[in-house]
Design brief:
Shape: extended
Distance between the termini: 78 Å
Order of helices and strands: HEEHHEEEEEHEEEEEEEEEEHE
Radius of gyration: 28 Å
Number of strands: 18
Helix content: 10-25%
Amino acid sequence: MERQDLVIRVILTVVGVLLALFLIMYGYFWCQRRRRKSNSDAANSDLEAGPASPGRPANSTFLSLRTPLISTRTFGAQLETTGTGSPGSKSPAGGSGPATGSQDSSKTPPTAHNKALQNVKGDHPSMAFLQSRSISLVDMYIDNSEPSENVGQIHFSLEYDFQNTTLILRILTAKELPAKDMSGTSDPYVRVTLLPDKKHRLETKIKRRTLNPRWNETFYFEGFPIQKLQSRVLHLHVFDYDRFSRDDSIGEVFLPLCQVDLSEKPSFWKALKPPAKDKCGELLTSLCYHPSNSILTLTLLKARNLKAKDINGKSDPYVKVWLQFGDKRIEKRKTPIFKCTLNPVFNETFSFNVPWEKIRECSLDVMVMDFDNIGRNELIGRILLAGKNGSGATETKHWQDMITKPRQTIVQWHRLKPE
């Protein structure tokens, strides 16, 4: 009996020692992993903020890029000035409207500034790619409809330092902002991002109890070659600061930099638009039509920023596609379900047999759905790809481009609509 008790004690002791060793090793490796992750995050940080350098105004902020956030090939572009015709638009000489260059490039020495301008404004084999990319940026971020309500205007200017590859943004003033506080005023500030990067952002100071704030603050975005700016969209989002609750959104402005001639130092007055309350996300699709064999091909590439439908802040998205002739549904296809994500990568291709004489009459009803184990699947958002009466201008244009460019794959981002 005593021997049996001794054996049990030995076994328990061995198990206890092994368990203690396991816990010690687990804790050690966990600490090492956390330390490596912290070191990696510090080493790979793309942006670093610092105080204004000598020669810069005290009320300035700058971001320095060690490595560009987007890796794109160098390509030229023809810039078009937008916003210079709006109130407050000025040329460097102080006049209004777009400025015309007064120097003859053939007589001007090839300085670094002129070389950069020639590279941007000159013809380049990748011009078509940039133009299609610019159209995509405009379609993605610009809503040409009239604001549903007046939420004020914002005044800002842009400048580009060619020698130091630095974008200079000056946020000047705003006017006629709506009152968000009980006092009949607001405490506005501006959040600045260069989309598609949303992680790194800058903010102005908060102006207390005013509907017509004056910031006069300067922001420097360093390490941006002029070509790389063509893939960025300036996003200014005005908020009302609240001490004890979430800050209220007042309005926002999107400005694709591919539309701006930065050499002219443009100044803008832009009407703020209230943020969309029903943002469903975006869907990247491609269309291709082969008249020879009457095959219409739809590729669902990926989606991003989908609306969360589940209590965990995620969705279980899949896409359902109907081929339609008029109002009659002909053929249905589905993608697999992607669990717990708002940014699924589908990479699914569907082919439909559509005769050439009917290609202008048919349409594709594309619905992004959220799968539910219990209950009915919910609609996240949808688009209608059609040559006539598509769900939006980009959808109609996408279809028309497919028809006018047979056998070519046309890729386009689309904003999902709630209904």
